[in-house]
Amino acid sequence: EEQLARIAGLPKTELHLHFEGAAPPAFIRGLAAEKQVDLSRIFNEDGSYAYRDFTHFLSVYEAATGVLKTPEDFARLCRAVLEESAANGVVYSETFLSPDFCGGGDVSAWRDYLHAIREAAEAAERDLGVTLRGIVTCIRHFGPDKARAAALCAAETADDWLVGFGMAGDENRGRQRDFAYSFDMAREAGLQLTSHAGEWRGPSEVREAVEDLRVTRIGHGVRAIEDPATVEMLAERGVTLEVCPGSNVVLGVYPALADHPIDRLRRAGVKVTVSTDDPPFFHTTMRREYTGLAQRFGWDEEVFAEINNTAMDAAFCDAATRAAVK
Ligand code: ADE
Ligand code: ZN
What pTM does this model have? Predict the structure, then answer.
């Protein structure tokens, strides 16, 4: 009990957090009321987000995001998200931002959104002690053309705060290599790379993320466990997995945490880290992820220290930021 409380209270690094997906339902309901938009269909009676499966989750996510209109809306969201992170002991976090939802891929509009978000993040860092960095993400089911616009936004705004480029969305659509042009553009602009793979599709998708997009991190990647050669490749190349166990269980990738491969991957020498993905959608928090893993796999404080070291080593921020957080 005491040990569990200590584990829940550890300082945490989170590498995989969708910005809009972290919006508390009450925050979205409040914005909808202000703007007189009827969003009741995306909520359960108890106020939580209502969705049936992964593709429906994506459409509910996009509907919720629809009430976030102005840079000011996103700045308010930033404060709400970081208050939740700080309450969970998160000291460093990277979040996925989508130009598709912030100005529709227009670079000059994107700059305004980014500026508002960054200002809110810097205020929250002073007040709450949590450091945030941004990763521009393209959305796979929006297709390669929209991805290019997102990559251009990323390349034009890459700096010490906007540190990465990635891809989220429906892994069952298209191929990773359709997005190689965008990832190349982002890499040439100095951004570090991650892609969602091996959440819905198997080990070959994980290999393609590494080989076709040349990412150093993978969102999820857990289904690599189905092929020993892929597990070995990840371990050998030192690819870091952004594992989101609670998300995987709620979305049905695995029936229960006991079936989740995170501990097996770790024991096989793969660099694993722990994140929430879209916490209110999956009824999770960083504290819940940690206590769940401690209870299910017997992870102690030493293991969590190793997990957090792995995460800070794989963080996309500069060395000075990394040193200040560590
Ligand atoms: N966008 C938000 N959450 C996601 C997830 N778990 N997988 C793919 N795309 C997402
Ligand atoms: Zn994700």
Answer: 0.98
